[in-house]
Amino acid sequence: MAGRFVPRTTRTTARGGGADVPVTGALDLGLTLGPLRRGPHDPTFRVTDDGSVWRATRTPEGPATLRAKAHGAEVAAETWGPGAAWLDARLPALLGAEDDPAAFVPRHKLLLAVHRRRAGLRLTRTGLVLESLIPTVLEQKVTVTEAYGSWRRLVRRYGEPAPGPAPEGLHVMPEARTWALIPSWEWHRANVDGKRAATIVRAARVAPRLEEAAHLPPPEARRRLELVPGIGPWTSAETVQRSNGAPDEVTTGDLHLPGIVGWALAGDRTADDARMLELLAPYAGQRHRAARLILLSGRTPPRRAPRRSPNDIRSL
């Protein structure tokens, strides 16, 4: 799914539209949009057999569907739905036009190699906070398998089918008011404990203020998110990386990331957050990109402890 953006004619029909995307340089759609996908069965994200990336989203103007596909040296994008015009205007940012990979200077042989190999990586900027915040809250202190299952159930139960000729089963996530009104027993059925559910409800109730964070400098955006009880540094970083396209907002408080970074850069599998930040200090301004490249390298420390077992609260 690698390609290169070039100017193209905007296609607008009764069913959908598109937009010129003034991005130069290599672009890998899978790497760039991949962080927006919450598991292989995410109802808001689909990669079809022809290589098209489909994404359903809820914009301030309503639901919208995006289809993007690489065609040799070009990438074609089409949009549908009430929010199509909003999405069209932000396609460049979504597809990495505002990101500057050249700002990253590798200072370690591993990063040099993966930076060259993954030249099409760009950091997406969605301009939308809640759609990244909610699934991130669902991932707090549980396995990703649990979180992905909860997200899938809630979006299918309370969302709506994606507009346009979208693949069957593609859904737009619920609007903020709907999240705020989900009853306690439905959270339980979705395997979401009361603490995470309460955090999402609190966030949904102040959604307009949180959405404003997408237009703030990343550190200020994170501070605003963390005013909501239940949202800490881990959650705010994971959200702002996507909503604001923040190249320097490295995730702290993660169970695995410090050890992975420590192992990749210094052979230190016992690294904690402080050690990780020390190792990433030479990449100030690009620390999130450095961590992302390390994860893409596949170099991880040998596992010693057994994998964490999923916890199904629905049987309680």
Report how far apart the termini are: 44 Å
Q: What's the CATH H-level superfamily name of the largest domain?
A: Hypothetical protein, domain 2
**How would you sum up the global shape?**
globular
Question: Percent range for helical residues?
Answer: 25-40%
Task: Identify the CATH class of the largest domain.
Answer: Mainly Alpha
Task: Determine the strand fraction and express it as a percent band.
Answer: 5-15%
Tell me the number of structural domains: 3
Strand order of the largest sheet: 3-4-5-6
Major beta-sheet overview: 4 strands, antiparallel
Question: What is the strand tally?
Answer: 8
SSE string? EEHEEEEHHHHHEEHHHHHHHHH
Low-confidence stretches: 1-16
Kindly name the structural category: alpha+beta
Catalytic activity: Hydrolysis of alkylated DNA, releasing 3-methyladenine, 3-methylguanine, 7-methylguanine and 7-methyladenine
Keywords: DNA damage, DNA repair
Organism: Streptomyces omiyaensis
EC number: 3.2.2.21
